[in-house]
Amino acid sequence: MTATEAVLRPRTDSWLPDRLVASAAERKAGTQLRTDEFADWLAARGRANHFAVERIRLADLQGWSFAPGSGNLTHRSGRFFTVEGLHVVTGQGPVPEWHQPIIKQPEVGVLGILAKEFDGVLHFLMQAKMEPGNANLLQLSPTVQATRSNYTKVHRGSDVKYIQYFTSPGRGRVLADVLQSEHGSWFYRKANRNMLVLTDEDVPLDDDFCWLTLGQIGELLHRDNVVNMDARTVLACLPGPEQGPDAWALHPDARLLSWFTGERSRHEVRVERIPLDEVRGWTRDEWSISHDEGRFFRVMALAVQAGNREVTGWTQPLFEPVATGVAAFLTRRFDGVPHVLAHARVEGGFLDTVELGPTVQYTPANYGHLTGADRPPFLDRVLSAAPEDIRYEARHSEEGGRFLNAESRYLFVEAGDLGTDVPPGYAWVTPGQLSSLARHGHYVNVQARTLLSCFSTGAVPS
Amino acid sequence: MTATEAVLRPRTDSWLPDRLVASAAERKAGTQLRTDEFADWLAARGRANHFAVERIRLADLQGWSFAPGSGNLTHRSGRFFTVEGLHVVTGQGPVPEWHQPIIKQPEVGVLGILAKEFDGVLHFLMQAKMEPGNANLLQLSPTVQATRSNYTKVHRGSDVKYIQYFTSPGRGRVLADVLQSEHGSWFYRKANRNMLVLTDEDVPLDDDFCWLTLGQIGELLHRDNVVNMDARTVLACLPGPEQGPDAWALHPDARLLSWFTGERSRHEVRVERIPLDEVRGWTRDEWSISHDEGRFFRVMALAVQAGNREVTGWTQPLFEPVATGVAAFLTRRFDGVPHVLAHARVEGGFLDTVELGPTVQYTPANYGHLTGADRPPFLDRVLSAAPEDIRYEARHSEEGGRFLNAESRYLFVEAGDLGTDVPPGYAWVTPGQLSSLARHGHYVNVQARTLLSCFSTGAVPS
């Protein structure tokens, strides 16, 4: 890495946290539009672009086929992604071992948000983007959301707009840039590059793009299925405040890291990729590959027509969960400082065994058959929370490029009665501690990052 | 994780950096012995314990055999480690693809150093420990250096001394606790838990143990083959100073992390485990498995007799490099602040593609056949450095429990003539930035951590 001149700089951006707080405080209007105008803007983008998706038979996939020998679902280009099999042995809990289909996508994509000050307030360039699996199809996404195939032209489509800010070092000031995992239950070791870059250049504004303050995005996070997963995970990577009350926590950082290291060390998870044909307990028919007891998800296929994507039409497989998930942090204050109860989760697709997830992260329908001590801790408490204890609730879609109708209820639930004594695998952490961990990869899982974005945008006061 | 009471604490240990600096300044004497008495102490420990190693035929390994079908070298217990095959495709450089034997050891071990204040100065409890592959056999190791098999009794040996400080949370104050990688060219995704724990309990002192200040250990790091690899990597995990001049760097932390993320993203490394029998270009004879051109290393076997280990005698395979390695940081000051030139290295056994290594890390004999642009950058500069430019040089042994006679020359070489313009894959970083990264796993490789321990112990002034 080359520096332009031999002048030292402060290692940390001391000016940034205050600017972020100021942007999060601007909730009603930004430089481009008022927050109450946003729904019309998004609807207009929907009308300006033709989108349609249609469920198709697996045999009607174009360019995709089940490989002889393995049965893996692959694209003839050898790129994009494949659907393969996974055999996971945790040796713990009510389900100590299982087989499942999994998406393998070794390419690292770029999820990038461009930031710029207007009238002294930080704004973030967001895109109205169609993804075939998303509720409402059109949601608010990062400035750039591109696989390497996208921007190196495997799609043979048009250029990815604004990509140059994220591929040419020196075009702006990097606020965050980290490889983050995605859904470990559905992806095998997938990571995307989460970037925020601050520019002071004049930025030409394309029709499908919109400058918003953090506070405006925070308001939109209170609406169902508006801010897409990629936008949420990138926003979670913004640095959190570390001064004043934020310099304090129930557990010092060194002890928190030690607890996490212990959690990662004590789980001996064996993960083995297997041919899709050898996945036991799942059955393929004309339309899908599904679990024999109807749980978890189906592998299915869509045909997509789109007017403003890099290519105008395609078919692809997606995973379709059978039911809505729930992802919730229990939260309370200690000595006035907010804490959330993090859970060190094993997911079969994680690169390194364990990441921190929300207190509760389950698809309740998958666990209807479990009772008593086998029920996931805190699940019933979240499902039966009194309305006055729910500090935040919204439904959000997971990655709409790979998952169809994958919605989760995201919640913060007040739990002032819980003490410092928590079960093994759980720890009280501050939002600032989660932010510090999210500067690095493989600490905070994608569901916890959605909830963390509620803090960084002020959707939930921290 | 449970807190003892609901009292907030500062997230960072602001008192710790000054105590570490004070301990590093105590170079001549500690509470137990003077530094000039250390060699006698170590020699006495050698006389008090009987050690002998003998090279044996592969067929004379007890409990180890080549598995039918794969040819993998395995122990009948299914534990310890296995020697398997690896197929690596980087697609870059003079050697874009290769096969090799590799050690697979999925267990996470504990490398732990206990710290305690005597007369207001931090001391560290070090152990005189025999390892069969080490030069001189006996070297200075961490308080605890134990695989899970060790302390869960697969060896059926005696207890691991002092292990309770590292397995029972709450027995002390954690200064550092992080899963760090080891040699990515010889191990497949191995990680050990590097821990430092501060206690104020009375600690009974065993014969083979010695309390030393950081400065005393720093003095010993100037001697060849005294401080073992495990001690060096743990000491590298101590937090570095971050105030005053140490708060400044050529690249702010956010830009450094972004550069690192870019390096990790741009390498598409394909790594595939293969049966040892299918490793091409290597041949097994009665005594070893070796490379057909005599490069890299041999897989060989030793019989060990030891008086003070958990078990008194055993046989085991080891890797024996064919020549001495070199690991060197080029170093210079910018605006008075020391920087070292880090290299983002691909090693086939890394969990996540790339880690930061020294500027130069090679076994020169393996590259004698390469010329011109194919020679590793900066290698010839280090090999031909003028004596007045060498700020530090010592020979150290790599992990003596797995590697026989694996020695490297470790150096810091002054390079005041180099500017800020460096080749792709290289970046100037401060020792404090390396320390910050080493709080987390998979950033700083084991060779760079050896050099980093020279800063944390004051062996090299930072």
Strand and helix map with partners:
The structure is a homodimer of 462-residue chains.
Chain A: E1 9-10, H1 16-25, H2 38-48, E2 51-56, E3 64-66, E4 73-75, E5 82-89, E6 97-104, E7 109-118, E8 121-130, E9 138-141, E10 144-146, H3 148-151, H4 164-167, E11 173-181, E12 191-198, E13 209-213, H5 214-220, H6 229-235, E14 248-249, H7 253-266, E15 270-274, E16 282-284, E17 289-291, E18 297-306, E19 313-321, E20 325-334, E21 337-346, E22 354-357, E23 360-362, H8 379-383, E24 390-397, E25 407-414, E26 426-429, H9 431-438, H10 446-456
Parallel strand pairs in A: 7-12, 20-25
Antiparallel strand pairs in A: 2-18, 3-4, 5-6, 5-15, 7-8, 7-10, 8-9, 8-13, 11-12, 16-17, 17-18, 18-19, 20-21, 20-23, 21-22, 21-26, 24-25
Give a description of the structure.
The structure is a homodimer of 462-residue chains. In chain A, strands 7, 8, 9, 10, 11, 12 and 13 form a 7-stranded mixed β-sheet that branches. Chain A has helices spanning 16-25, 38-48, 148-151, 164-167, 214-220, 229-235, 253-266, 379-383, 431-438, 446-456, and strands at residues 9-10, 51-56, 64-66, 73-75, 82-89, 97-104, 109-118, 121-130, 138-141, 144-146, 173-181, 191-198, 209-213, 248-249, 270-274, 282-284, 289-291, 297-306, 313-321, 325-334, 337-346, 354-357, 360-362, 390-397, 407-414, 426-429. By secondary structure, chain A is of the alpha+beta class. Chain A has a domain at 244-267 and 322-456: Nucleoside Triphosphate Pyrophosphohydrolase, CATH 3.90.79. In chain A, 18% of the residues lie in helices and 34% in strands. Chain A is globular.
